[in-house]
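Quick one:
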Amino acid sequence: MGMGVLVLVGVLTRVTALNYMTIGDATVITYVTLVFALGLAHFVLKEPCLVTHTAMAFLIILGTMVLTRPPFLTGQSQFDTLLLIGVGLKLIDGASRALFSIVMRKMREFHFATVLLIMNLTGLVLNVATCYSLGLFRVPESLYDIMLLIGQGTLSSAGHLSLVLALKFEQVATVTDRKSVV
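Output:
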């Protein structure tokens, strides 16, 4: 259930952040996930933190700081509060994504089908509960809606399967680096 909560927190903060910042800024800040993943993987999983990873993390942090458009760079009298809210939400998203990757890596001893089943069922229950509580839940009425639902479920499951297998054989930093691009 914890993995589902991490995914839910990540999705809600990711989508809400778009109300406060441009999609370009939000996409750039997505790379902060790697910084969280590097730190957590080093301390929790005892994975090595290479010099290149540290340099990349430093540049990502520096880029995120510049992206907040500090007054000394822009000449404004103060920070843009709405942008800072968006950055904060994206930081929460990045932390939840990194923590999710760490949990998945810790579960690599389990068979991938078991992990995939737990992820998909937890996601389904949380999505239905969230949509129902927000009054957004409705049963698909047209064939188009049904096909979209099946297609999204299939592609989501394929993505989860790829992630589970990648984290089973690779270090968290490597997988998170590739996942941030998506």
